[in-house]
Amino acid sequence: MSASVPGAVGGLYDVGENLDARLPDCPPEQAWARRRDEYRLVNPANRRKLTVIVVGTGLAGSGAAATLGRLGYRVECFSLHDAPRRAHSVAAQGGINAARARKVDGDSLTRFVKDTVKGGDYRGREADVVRLGLESGRVIDHMEAIGAPFAREYGGQLATRSFGGVQVSRTYYTRGQTGQQLEIACAQALQEQVAAGS
After folding, report:
1. Measuring CA to CA, which residue among 86, 89, 84 is closest to residue 192?
2. At 7, is the pLDDT very low, low, confident or very high (cuts 50, 70, 90)?
3. Residues 166, 97: contact at Cβ < 8 Å?
4. How far is CA 184 from CA 9, 27, 109, 153, 193, in A?
């Protein structure tokens, strides 16, 4: 079956034989759990036998490298910059949206998915956005655990605000320096694993 998309002047361009988005054949809420259950497990005793290569030391790269190092894997982390803190992740200053089970303004995973898909001009796959929503709370908890100084309310809970076009208050932030502070925390966690030899 050949797929076509509308052209600039009303014509059609052929985009190939099989246009397959590889959408899971289950409800989006179950896609990640189903895929995770299909992965083969690695025995903790065998982790040192595996080498994981991480390219980049931005938030994703340094966070993944530090976490995998802590879990016992040998990690080779590569960066084009002279220091991990030079990554472009420092430019992300607004905050992180997370569906973190905080019932502020009636927030839920469904509302998170709607806001994220709409905010991305309907280009995101729903199953991936559901996974993002499910994992987002863990990302906030992980970043707090490695020392990211999130803003707090008077009672000590993490503060949130409405930012980036979301309909509820679900953005976790560190004033106007979120990307910079998160990058510093990730770079510090990465340097601890470098010092540990992992």
Report:
1. 84
2. very low
3. yes
4. 49, 38, 29, 22, 14
CA distances 135 to 2, 14, 140, Å, are 36, 37, 9
Element (H, E) at 54: strand 51-55
Give the span between the Cα atoms of 119 and 113, in whole angstroms. Answer: 10
Q: Are 118 and 110 in contact (CB under 8 A)?
A: no
Please give the Cα distance from 170 to 106 (Å, whole number): 11
Q: Per this entry, what is the length of the chain?
A: 198
Confidence at residue 52, expressed as pLDDT on a 0 to 100 scale: 94
Please tell me the pTM assigned to this model: 0.70
